Amino acid sequence: MVILKFPDESCQYIVVNRGARYTLPTENEKYTDLLWEGCEKGETVVITEDREFLACAGKLKDGTEEGPLGVKLPEEEISRIVAEIEQSGSGETITIDMKQATVVPKEVLEAIQGKEVQIVLDMGSYSWTIGGTEVAAAELKDIDLEVKADTGAVPTGLINELAEGKPTTQLTLTHNGEFGFRADLTLNMGSENSGGTGNLYYYDSSGKLVFQNAGQVQEDGAISLSFSHASDYVIILATSGNGAENNGKDSARSEEKGEKTWKERENAEIKKKENPVTTDSGTDEDDSNSDKRKSPKTGEE
């Protein structure tokens, strides 16, 4: 079976015999110039098992540009942020309260590009840090940086084989394909894992988990990991007692302090965010054809 996932997150399922050759399409009824993650344009691949291919680029045939479907900041807020960036000095960090928005505006990325300035996008239970010198794309666009937890997109058997009993967390990034910049995701894995190492693996189009980078879990449970494109990922925690280097701290202190992981904190964070934001115009919020993934941004399916 070949599964093609297009930029609008629609999927096409194609029955292909094992061992058969399959040429990845460069267009369909909606898109042209399709590129598939990890593959050359129009590449022919041998199908030895069920495989999912993610479109990392494609142009709409009607000539329009397809923007992200996530929640945006109001235009006046974007203008205020851009002005603050333009007035900032070298080495400054600007924290942006995203409230319930998940889309980082193109205008903000253009404002920091090439500058010794970094922005922190505070999304409640997690945050993204982007440095101006890490924004490399010639053509920037709005990027939806929503992160969904424990989506089940990566086969459990594959994770268990690699994790060997270690704690794991699945992440799915809503955006599809390259960002055009490097961004560091910070989230809380629970201070019971303090001193351990979180190893980030990318679930590639060939059905393999590929190591990307690692980060140390801080005393408060926070960990930062680097991303440059969106897909499905797994974090495997090598914590105290399962093979990681550790600082000998008591792994039970998070329960004693009542601390919570990023997923558990999400609902509490959302209740504090009551300022209205705007959604993309012309987009439909009907979730009837969704795969019922849980979002740490909303806590809803």
| Euclidean distance between termini CA atoms | 27 Å
Number of strands: 18
**Helix segment tally:** 5
Q: What is the helix/strand order?
A: EEEEEEEHEEHEEEEHEEEEHHE
Helix content: 10-25%
User: What global shape is seen?
Assistant: flat
Mean pLDDT over all positions = 80
Number of domains: 2
- Rg from C-alpha positions? 20 Å
Main sheet specs = 8 strands, mixed
Structural class by helix and strand composition: mainly beta
Binned strand content:
35-45%
Show unreliable segments. Answer: 242-263, 265-300
Structure, described:
The protein has 301 residues and is mainly beta. It folds into 2 domains: 2-60, no CATH class; 71-276, no CATH class. It contains 5 helices and 18 strands. Strands 8, 10, 11, 13, 14, 15, 16 and 17 form an 8-stranded mixed beta sheet that branches. A hairpin with a 5-residue loop joins β1 (2-5) and β2. α1 (75-87) runs parallel beside α2 (106-112). The radius of gyration is 20 Å and the shape is flat. The two termini are 27 Å apart.
Write the layout of secondary structure elements.
Elements: E1 2-5, E2 11-14, E3 20-23, E4 31-36, E5 44-47, E6 51-60, E7 71-72, H1 75-87, E8 93-97, E9 103-104, H2 106-112, E10 118-122, E11 126-131, E12 143-144, E13 147-149, H3 156-163, E14 168-188, E15 197-203, E16 209-216, E17 222-238, H4 253-257, H5 262-272, E18 278-279
Parallel strand pairs: 1-6, 8-10
Antiparallel strand pairs: 1-2, 3-5, 4-6, 7-18, 9-12, 10-11, 11-14, 13-14, 14-17, 15-16, 15-17
